Amino acid sequence: MSKIGSIGARLHRGEVGYDFVGNRKIWYGISILITITAILGLAVRGLNMGIEFQGGAVFTTPKHVSASVTSAEGYAEDASGHDAIVQKLGDGSLRIQIAGIDTDKSDAIKEQLAKELKVDSESINADLVGPSWGDQIANKAWEGLGIFMVLVVIYLAIAFEWRMALAALVALIHDITITTGIYALVGFEVTPGTVIGLLTILGYSLYDTVVVFDSLKEQTKDITRQTRWTFSDVANRSINGTLVRSINTTVVALLPVAGLLFIGGGFLGAGMLNDISLSLFVGLAAGAYSSIFIATPLVADLKEREPQMQALRKRVLAKRAQAAAQGTQVEPETADEAYDEPEDAAPAVVGPRNQPGTRSGQSTARNQPSSRNRGRGRPSGKRR
Fold it and tell me: How does pLDDT run across 87-131, given as a tens digit for each residue?
């Protein structure tokens, strides 16, 4: 754990890091491939909509019914003439779901099921959902999602800028498409719990994205006043500085959701947990990925198209070329020092230097110039 903390501190200080922005085409390609797969899954298989959206009936049998899941499916399909989904619950009862049936036929289906399962018809609980109510639920879900997207874009455009709002919107669409595509490929039922799970993971994805954007906004203040970093460089530092935090929060959030999905839904047979746990599990992972690999690199792409940022890039590259020609290199800076250096300042030199009173061939310890702004960042603001 101490090693992880040490790596996180070094990432935050910019001592080590991975070039996320520089390799953005790789991440774009991976995201496009996954998104196309998800869209194909939606087009070919479609979503398995629950009765809340289609209308139908759910019959719950008494505990410890002797019939198996397979035989109960056959009984339900024979009685209704429609496909049935049967789940064995933790207490031994069966949950029989039949979509697309008229509610006035539910009593006849209930009597037939009681006869086949050899139980009293009064002991079978029937929950009926009309198709019109299901359509209302579907429409409200789409309306809620649309309002959520609009409010997110407006807020981010005000708090940050329109480029960050656009990048966050693309990341959200990316997360929704992947999650719904996984639902189509896996065949899990889509219920109102699924919609709740989607809205939850979108909020989490935004939280992760806003953390990086806030760091990026803080570090790019007056960025054109210096000549050591391009916007893409600073964006990359922002991702690396929050990387360990993003990974830690994602892993901690995924562990209990994985328990719901794999233990609750798989081993204990709690099928009703699958609709929300799968959306949370896939959405949390996709949200963390899009925050790191999609949203911030996309902001860097958009900002680098600005004339000011293009001019800054030319100055930075020219200074680096000059330093390389002189056999020197630009020293890394701390966040406090990054924008306090005049544009015409000579590049810092790393390595041994000749000190007064020493011969040119004599080796001396490395002596870097002290920062002119060493006092900045301290509460008192005084130099030491």
Answer: 777 677 888 888 777 767 888 888 888 888 888 888 888 887 776
* Percent of residues, the chain, with pLDDT higher than 90: 13
pTM of the model: 0.70
Inter-axis angle of helices 162-186 and 24-44, nearest 10? 40
Structure tokens at 267: 């081993």
**In what helix (H) or strand (E) does residue 220 lie, and over which residues does it extend?**
none
Report the CATH superfamily, name and number, of domain 2-49+133-303: Multidrug efflux transporter AcrB transmembrane domain (1.20.1640.10)
DSSP at 259: I
CA 67 to chain CA centroid, Å, is 42
Q: Where in the chain is the domain with CATH 3.30.70.3400?
A: 56-129
Pseudo-torsion of CA 298, 299, 304, 307, nearest 10°?
140
> Tokens for 360?
């040119």
Q: Of 98-102, 116-120, 143-147, 263-267, which range is least confident?
A: 263-267
Domain 56-129 has CATH 3.30.70.3400: yes
| Beta-carbon count within 10 A of 191 CB | 21
Helices (H), 61-161: 69-80, 106-117, 131-159
Beta bridge partners of 129: 56
**371 vs 246, higher pLDDT:** 246
Phi (first) and psi of residue 93, to 5 degrees = -80, 165
Q: How many Cβ atoms from other residues are within 10 Å of residue 238's Cβ?
A: 25
pLDDT tens for each residue of 190-237: 877 788 888 888 888 888 888 889 888 888 888 888 888 899 999 998
Which residue bears the tokens 């399962």?
Answer: 117
- If we measure between CA atoms, which residue out of 121, 106, 108, 129 comes closest to residue 61? 121
Q: Is 118 left (phi over 0), alpha (psi -120 to 50) or beta?
A: left
96, 25 contact by CB (below 8 A): no
Closest CA to 127 of 55, 49, 47, 195: 55
Instruction: Say what the pLDDT of residue 332 is.
Output: 46
CATH 1.20.1640.10 occupies which residues in the chain?
2-49+133-303
